[in-house]
Design brief:
This protein has 114 residues and is α+β, with helices and mostly antiparallel strands. It folds into two domains: 3-50; 75-114, no CATH class. It is built from two helices and two strands. The chain has a two-stranded antiparallel ribbon. A hairpin with a 6-residue loop joins β1 (80-89) and β2. The chain is elongated and about 75 Å long. The mean pLDDT is 81.
């Protein structure tokens, strides 16, 4: 389901819950549903704006037909030598993350020494 369709469905559910709302009952479970649904709609509407690096809603770019192209435009900001690198893999989904740490003998590498 695409984001726009999910938002439309959530708005339909909000209208549905409002029809069940009893104004004489201030702590209605339906009001809690409405609040949660409105929160979800707001989150979905703001999601793409909070993540500026993307190819577009639902778009995946695979130049070689297999590997997904990152939407980020990376710029080299630092080169180091003698660091500890950790490759972490999620036990549940398999996503990989890389972490690194300076050591006592870590050196910054300049363009002249690279």
């Amino acid at each position: 389901m695409k984001r726009e369709k999910a938002i439309a469905q959530l708005r339909d559910l909000i209208r549905d819950r409002r029809s069940f709302l009893d104004k004489s009952e201030p702590n209605s479970v339906f009001q809690d549903d409405i609040d949660a649904l409105e929160y979800a709609v707001n989150h979905l509407q703001n999601h793409v704006q909070s993540m500026p690096c993307h190819h577009g809603e639902g778009v995946t770019v695979r130049p070689d037909g297999v590997h997904e192209l990152s939407p980020h435009a990376y710029k080299l900001t630092q080169k180091l030598r003698n660091v500890t690198v950790e490759v972490l893999t999620c036990e549940t989904c398999g996503e990989v993350s890389v972490a690194w740490y300076r050591q006592g003998n870590t050196e910054d590498i300049t363009d002249e020494t690279y």
